[in-house]
């Protein structure tokens, strides 16, 4: 079946299934077929990601972790670590910033 795919000009094959066995089967089939491009696989947990990397994946996506990392990037702009805090029941007032709050009270 891999031989039917137009892989000659393909630089990346990306598998979005998070099933380790499916990822390994695809990776081995691609290598057996002679595919020389890069392979990105998907994992549910860091332990699965490490397993797939050891198996030879060029890139392993861990969507939940990748999404969390991206959310942090958006919440904390690279230019400043200051994020205004809106008034809330915890007693913070507008203009407070995360870096000036005690660690145990950060949101």
Commentary on this structure:
The chain has 3 helices and 5 strands; from the N terminus they run βαβαβαββ. With 107 residues, the chain is α/β, with parallel strands linked by helices. The chain has 2 domains: 2-75, NAD(P)-binding Rossmann-like Domain (Rossmann fold), CATH 3.40.50.720; 81-107, no CATH class. α2 (46-55) links the parallel β2 and β3. The protein is elongated, with a radius of gyration of 21 Å. The N and C termini lie far apart (51 Å). The model is unreliable at 92-107 (pLDDT under 50).
Q: How many strands, what sense, and barrel or not for the largest sheet?
A: 3 strands, parallel
- Tell me the strand percentage band: 5-15%
Number of helices, where a helix is a run of at least 4 consecutive DSSP H or I residues: 3
Give the helix level as a range of percent: 25-40%
CATH class of the largest domain: Alpha Beta
Quickly count the domains.
2
Taken in chain order, the helices and strands follow as: EHEHEHEE
Structural class: alpha/beta
Look up the CATH topology of the largest domain. Answer: Rossmann fold
The assigned CATH architecture of the largest domain is 3-Layer(aba) Sandwich
Q: Which strand order spans the largest sheet, edge to edge or round the barrel?
A: 1-2-3
Mean pLDDT: 78
Outline type: elongated
Radius of gyration: 21 Å
DSSP summary, beta strand count: 5
**End-to-end gap:** 51 Å
Uncertain segments are: 92-107
